Amino acid sequence: MNFRTRFGFFSALIAALFILAACGNGGGGGAASTEHTIASDPSGFAYQQTEVAVPVGEQISVTFENASNVEHNWVLVRGGEDVAQTVNTEGNAAGGPTYLPEDQSNIIAATAMLEGGSNETITFTIDEPDDYRYICTFPGHYPTMAGTLTAQ
Q: Domain boundaries in the chain?
């Protein structure tokens, strides 16, 4: 390969790399998004995604997929671990079929209690930047079945 051919090839390669970089999503895996899928771990009481970032002030869609063979839900609470514990305790006391507390002022969004293999999409908006906990309120699943949604 002569010098001109090599120079032309490498120039085209560098230009292609710049074009691909410009077409990226602007922040890699940590970029905030308005649509998320969160699934239960098929082999245990956990979510496969335990950290999610979302933008403040935009409509968010979360699809919860119950990949397990037991019932699970996805409940986003208005606060951290202390609020999650309160929502879980009150939800367990309320009983089935929803295992959600009667007073839902500490809940931002929640799916129904889903049978294994089913899914549900919910939409909501976060108005304040913060870290929010999401949990499953089926008795015995929390605190191992929990994650953090960061609004930024």
A: 1-26, 32-151
Q: Which class for 97: exposed (0-12), middle (13-18), buried (19 or more C-beta within 10 A)? A: exposed
What strands lie across the sheet with 130-135, from one edge to the other? Answer: 51-54, 146-151, 130-135, 75-77, 107-110
Our measurement of the distance from residue 70's CA atom to the centroid of its chain's CA atoms, rounded to an integer in Å, reads 20
Tell me yes or no: is domain 32-151 CATH 2.60.40.420.
Answer: yes
pTM: 0.78
Q: What is the pLDDT of residues 100-131, one digit of tens each?
A: 999 999 999 999 999 999 999 999 999 999 99
Centre a 10 Å sphere on the Cβ of residue 47 and count the other Cβ atoms it contains. 22
Spatial distance between the Cα atoms of 61 and 13, rounded to a whole number of angstroms: 38
Bridge partners, 130 (sequence order) = 151
**HEC readout, the chain:** CCHHHHHHHHHHHHHHHHHHHHCCCCCHHHCCCCEEEEEECCCCCCECCCEEEECCCCEEEEEEECCCCCCECCEEECCCHHHHHHHHHHHHHHCCCCCCCCCCCCEEEECCCECCCCEEEEEEECCCCEEEEEECCCCCCCCCCEEEEEEC
